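Dear colleagues,

As part of the handover before I leave the project, I'm documenting each prediction I ran so the next person doesn't have to rerun anything. This entry is a single chain, and its sequence is reproduced below.
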Amino acid sequence: MSEQPVTIEEHKPLPEDCNPTKWNDSYNKNPLLRWSTFGSKEKPPKIHWQTYYRIGAQWLDVDCKRALVVRSKYKSIDFIAMFLRCLNSRRAIKDFSEIYSIDFDQPAIQTNAFENVLTPLILIHFLKVVERIAKRGLKRGYVHREENLKKVKGRIRILANERKNVIPHRFDRVYCQFNEFTVDIPENRLIKRALLFVQRELTHFQKLKYYSQLLHLENKCLSAFTQVSPEIELRDVKLVKTHKLFREYDIAVELAKTILRRNDYSIKKAAGKKKSTPVFWLDMARLFEMYVYSILRKQYGKSILYQFEGTDGETPDFLFRNGDESCILDTKYINLDNVNRLYELVRQLAGYARDVKVLNKLGLSTEIDKTVVPCLFLYPIMENPSDDDGKLLARDNWIEIAGWTKFYKIRVKVPQSPQNEAGE
């Protein structure tokens, strides 16, 4: 029987009773932990195991007896609002799969701490991907059929036709086998099946302000699959293959399998609350980065360049170029109002500002004595965004960082949950 999970927040050292003082291979493979001196008040700094930018649930030992549950340090984040905002762009939909991972091969962990994080994460990601598939048109393929028809189509099944039609004197029918080019293929059936699971799951969202938006999205997706049957056998689910040429289908199929596995392939279970969570992690720093990207992309369009590769493969988060205006932007998932020393952060961004490839992309002179590129840190504050906030990169939002030339920071409002908590 497993012990009670160890529950802590991001950027906290593990409790002493489960924090080895030596290197531990099992802990090193744990995506929620790192071996660090960060936060140590001792001199010299003590190296210890601690959490960092990821939240989630993982087993601490190979025997799956003790679990680690890491919750967000910002308890009031409205995850549903963030997911909906992040998944408004095609780029974000494709990259979103990289910011979290779910492992169903390990035993589930007894906690409901992430019920309003993990379930919306999977459902919204799935619906947004299927919405894009529906816009482009459903994939078609050849499906083998056998039917008793009024006229010959394909090949006649001689023995089956004799048994079904000749012996009972049904001479107006002929039993045929044929291939039909249709949208009713296994991949679409799997997606349709998962959409019905989502429909049941959405009953838990009825009291939320996003319910009508999610329900509209669900109905929109289902309407595109009216000619597709939801009937698919469990053995066939595991045989559905993905295709490199259909990237969005690849993502949708994997998410559909995740939804079905999470509910044990039972629609009845889809309507019930989960008392356990699968082993998973969610990268909060990447989530915040994609949240900022969705805001910038909506406000500035193609003036925003995401993950431009500079010299030696170094990639600043964003480049902004609009006419004569240009700057380098970097997201930081920390409250910079409470950070006194910014040297390490400034050093990294200063390197991007002297990267010749980056300067050329911004249309700036590479003569370093003539060019000082504005560098901006974007960091979260727990405050609901408003339609009256204006553009994020407006000069009024730039807060000068004392002691550094043309270094600024901008506060990014992160939506707050009405329940004012991250879990149930």
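The CA atoms of residues 43 and 69 lie 29 Å apart. The first helix runs from residue 25 to 28.

All the best with the project,
I.
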